[in-house]
Design brief:
single chain; 224 residues; mainly alpha; 79% helix; globular
Length: 224
C-alpha cells in the first residue's frame, strides 16, 4: 500500500475518529518528542488497533508529519486571517499577540509540538520540517510588512524579510513562554512572576510597545 492509499484510507473514516487520532498523536509527540513517542500507545489511546493505525499511516514519521500539518494549518489559518485585514500593521500586531496568547492557553499541545519541531535532532528532517512549517508563515509576515512599508505605516529603512523574522521570533518565544517548562521558568526569572499570574493585557501592551518602537522609530541624524 503506497502513501496515497494510506491517506485515502484515513480520509474515509469519520471526522470524529480522524480528529481523535490526530489529537492523541499531537499530545504524544508534543509530550515525548518524536523519538520517544510510541505509535502503539497512540493507537490504544485513540481506541483503534495497531493494524488499523498502520492502515492509515505507513510509518510513525508519516503520522508525525500528518499531526504537524494539522497543527500548523490551524495556526496558519489564524495568522492569515489577521494579517490579510486592512488594519494598520500595529493593529494587526496587537490582534496577533492576543491571538497567540489565547491559542497558547487553549491549544497548548500545538505549541509544544512546535517546540519539539524546533528541537529536532535529525538534520535532514529538521530542514524538511523548517521548510514545511515556516515557508507559508514567512510569506504572510513578509507580505504584510512590505504592504505597510509601501503605505508609509512603518519606518522606511526596514528590511521586510528580516523584520518578519524578528517578529516571528518574538511571537514564537511568547507562545513557548505560556506552554513549555523551560520558557515558563525563563519568563519567571526575568519577571519574578509565574506566567499563570501575569496580566495578559500587560504582556501584550509591553510587547506591543517594543514592536512599535522597532517598526516606527527611525534613527535620528546625529548633530555631531
Amino acid at each position: 500500500m503506497n502513501l496515497n492509499h494510506h491517506k485515502e484510507a484515513f480520509e474515509r473514516i469519520s471526522d470524529e475518529r480522524r480528529e481523535r487520532i490526530l489529537e492523541i498523536g499531537i499530545e504524544e509527540f508534543a509530550s515525548k518528542g518524536y523519538e520517544k513517542a510510541n505509535i502503539n500507545i497512540i493507537a490504544r489511546n485513540a481506541g483503534i488497533s495497531i493494524g488499523l493505525m498502520y492502515k492509515y499511516f505507513a510509518t510513525k514519521e508519516d503520522l508525525f508529519l500528518t499531526c504537524i500539518t494539522r497543527g500548523m494549518r490551524f495556526l496558519e489559518n489564524t495568522l492569515e486571517e489577521l494579517m490579510q485585514s486592512r488594519d494598520k500593521l500595529l493593529v494587526k500586531a496587537e490582534k496577533l499577540l492576543r491571538a497567540a496568547c489565547e491559542l497558547s492557553m487553549k491549544n497548548a499541545n500545538y505549541i509544544r509540538l512546535y517546540n519539539e519541531i524546533t528541537a529536532e535532532k535529525d538534520g535532514k528532517r529538521a530542514v524538511m520540517l523548517a521548510r514545511q512549517v515556516e515557508t507559508s508563515t514567512s510569506r504572510i509576515y513578509i507580505t504584510a510588512i512590505a504592504q505597510a512599508l509601501a503605505c508609509g505605516d512603518v519606518r522606511q529603512d526596514l528590511d521586510p524579510r528580516l523584520f518578519a523574522f524578528f517578529l516571528d521570533n518574538l511571537l514564537m518565544t511568547l507562545q513557548f513562554s505560556f506552554t513549555c517548562e523551560y520558557y515558563r521558568e525563563r519568563l519567571k526569572i526575568y519577571t519574578g512572576v509565574d506566567v499563570g499570574k501575569l496580566d495578559e493585557d500587560e504582556i501584550v501592551n509591553q510587547l506591543l510597545k517594543f514592536i512599535e518602537s522597532a517598526f516606527t522609530f527611525e534613527k535620528q541624524p546625529s548633530n555631531f
